[in-house]
Design goal:
The complex is a heterodimer of chains A (114) and B (117). Chain A is globular and about 40 Å long. Chain A has no helices and 12 strands. Chain A is 0% helix and 51% strand. In chain A, β10 and β11 form a beta hairpin. Chain A has 114 residues and is mostly beta strands. Chain A has strands at 3-5, 10-14, 19-21, 24-26, 33-39, 46-52, 60-61, 64-69, 74-79, 88-95, 103-104, 108-113. Chain B is an all-beta fold. Chain B contains no helices and 11 strands. In chain B, the strands form 2 sheets. In chain B, strands 2, 4, 5, 6, 9, 10 and 11 form a 7-stranded mixed beta sheet that branches. In chain B, strands 1-3-8-7 form a 4-stranded antiparallel beta sheet, with no helix packed on it. In chain B, β7 and β8 form a beta hairpin. The chains are: A mainly beta (114), B mainly beta (117). The A-B interface holds A 4, 6, 33, 35, 37, 42-47, 50, 52, 91, 93, 95, 99-107 and B 31, 33, 35, 40-45, 48, 55-56, 58, 88, 90, 92, 94, 96, 101-111, 113.
C-alpha cells in the first residue's frame, strides 16, 4: 500500500518570504499523480498544484511550485512571496495508476506572520 | 457552476445511533468519493461510488455504507455510531473518464462535522 509522509507538523514564514513544505511517499508504481491541497479554516480542500510522475518538469502555478524527485520519492511544495491568505493546513496526496482514491499525508500547518 | 455541496454542515449524535450524510457532486462529475478526517489528521478514504455501485473501498468496517443515485448524488450511512466516528466527513467528486480524469485531483465539498457523544 502507498503511504504519504509529511514530516513537518507546523511551519512558519514571514509575509513575502519563501517557504518549502516537505512530502515523501512510498510506492511500487511507476505511473501516478501527486497533489498538494490547501485546507483553510473553512475546511474546504482546495487543489493547489498537481504533478504527473511521468513528467520530469516540475509543475508551477503562479507563486506555487514543486520539487519532484522521483527516485527519492520526494515531492516538496515551495510557496514564494507568502501572503496572509496562504495560512492553512497543507496536505500532500498520492493517486495511483489504478483506481481514483487519494492517499493523504498527515498535513503541515502553515502560519504566515505579518 | 455549483461545486460540491454537502449536508448537513454539522451533526450531533449519540453512541449507537445511525447517521446519513449527503453529497451532490460538481456539475458534470459522475464519481463520488467519501473521506473521513479525524481532528488534526489527513483525510482517510472510505469508499468511492460510480454508476451507482461501490467501486473501491478503504479500510473501514461494514458499519459504513453508501449509495449513489441516478443523478450522481451520494449518501454516506454510518450505523451503530462509536465515539471514534467523530470526524469531518468530506465528499469529493471527479470525472471517471476522459483525458482530464486521471490528472485532475478530486473536487472537495466543505464537509460535514459529525460529533458522537
Amino acid at each position: 500500500a502507498q503511504t504519504v509522509t509529511q514530516s513537518q507538523p507546523e511551519m512558519s514564514v514571514q509575509e513575502a518570504e519563501t517557504v518549502t513544505l516537505s512530502c515523501t511517499y512510498d510506492t511500487s508504481e511507476s505511473d501516478y499523480y501527486l497533489f498538494w491541497y490547501k485546507q483553510p479554516p473553512s475546511r474546504q480542500m482546495i487543489l493547489v498544484i498537481r504533478q504527473e510522475a511521468y513528467k520530469q518538469q516540475n509543475a508551477t502555478e503562479n507563486r506555487f511550485s514543486v520539487n519532484f524527485q522521483k527516485a527519492a520519492k520526494s515531492f516538496s511544495l515551495k510557496i514564494s512571496d507568502s501572503q496572509l491568505g496562504d495560512a492553512a493546513m497543507y496536505f500532500c496526496a498520492y493517486r495511483g495508476n489504478a483506481g481514483n482514491m487519494l492517499t493523504f499525508g498527515g498535513g503541515t500547518r502553515l502560519m504566515v506572520k505579518p | 457552476d455549483a461545486g460540491v455541496t454537502q449536508s448537513p454542515t454539522h451533526l450531533i449524535k449519540t453512541r449507537g445511533q445511525q447517521v446519513t450524510l449527503r453529497c451532490s457532486p460538481k456539475s458534470g462529475h459522475d464519481t463520488v468519493s467519501w473521506y473521513q478526517q479525524a481532528l488534526g489528521q489527513g483525510p482517510q478514504f472510505i469508499f468511492q461510488y460510480y454508476e451507482e455501485e461501490e467501486r473501491q473501498r478503504g479500510n473501514f468496517p461494514d458499519r459504513f455504507s453508501g449509495h449513489q443515485f441516478p443523478n450522481y448524488s451520494s449518501e454516506l450511512n454510518v450505523n451503530a455510531l462509536l465515539l471514534g466516528d467523530s470526524a469531518l466527513y468530506l465528499c469529493a467528486s471527479s470525472l471517471s473518464s476522459g483525458v482530464f480524469s486521471r490528472k485532475d485531483g478530486q473536487f472537495f465539498g466543505p464537509g460535514t462535522r459529525l460529533t458522537v457523544l
